[in-house]
Give the backbone structure.
Amino acid sequence: MKEYVIAILGATGAVGQRLITELAQSKIPVKKIKLLASKRSAGKKLKFKNQEIIVEETTPDSFNDVDLVLSSPGGAISKKFLPEAVKRGAVCVDNSSAFRMEEDVPLIIPGVNDAQLSHHHGIIANPNCSTIQMVAALYPIFKRWGISQIVVSTYQAVSGAGKAAWDEMLDQAKAHLNHQKATANILPTATDRKHYSLAFNLLPQIDVFEKDGYTHEEWKMIHETKKILFNDQNSNCIKVTATCVRVPVEIGHGETVYFIVKNKTATVQDIQEEIKQTPGLILQDDPQNQIYPQPLIAAGNRETFIGRIRADQENLGAFHMWVVADNLLRGAASNTVDIAKCLIRDHLVRVPK
Ligand code: A2P
């Protein structure tokens, strides 16, 4: 069996750390692992299985002889290094939004559209964490009844903003509890001008604002959903709109998803049954016993949890549901490692000439 030289780019980050453990727990045959980060982390030691691995500063030559790169260093760093990795023959699966909308870059959720992998040119994009859990939950419904419209509101955990933002929120919480002034230098988004405390607060801004008043996170949910389901980021086969909110939860995004099916014969019971039968989805929907998905319970799991499925009493064929998943695993590291498994299964760990 072929063994692979695998590099994890951004290995010290919130997602990077999970990439290491997800890869270690997978059956992917690893010949050698390289852990790459910035100069700041060079020399740090991290564990892969029982081995201690020294983190290296990333340079273009870090990718010489690498077969596969699992990447989560943020958009700017992905943009800088992944083309260098591809030039050196490595196939890259990237968590950032840097390449997601490029035409020759497949945007993949295994089990939904992994057939698209065969068209890759060296870079494959992992969708945004909120898009993954929403589309994974809707996909069996979409396949059976069709979906004409989605209206989603997200409740997104701070870990999705990276390790520094996560630490900042914990410091803010401590400061609030000690009646001290909380400082904010990163949240809601490091690249914007104003910063606010997230602890004991809600921030209706994830990423920067577009000219139309939507945030870029909302834009991503809309256009990524269209690209995944219809292979066209501007498809008018489905209407999608989103409101994204950062909440003071550490791990686990929640989403209220309102959707309208095309075939109006669908019932709540049918939808629950489809979800129960879909691998990777877990139905937690028993209101009489107060059973519904929660971030604290979902954290640490690879599955997508679904509950509160209700029919809109005034609109036939429209339903609500509540979807929760670990954003670092289901929305990032597990999806990335699952893409790597599909690439290996389909003999696609090679950069086409
Ligand atoms: P480092 O820890 O050395 O800064 P997060 O998404 O949690 O913020 O993590 C970002 C990841 O990207 C970290 O592993 C971080 O490494 C890495 N990173 C940041 N800047 C660079 C860079 N210039 N080159 C390579 N990796 C980088």
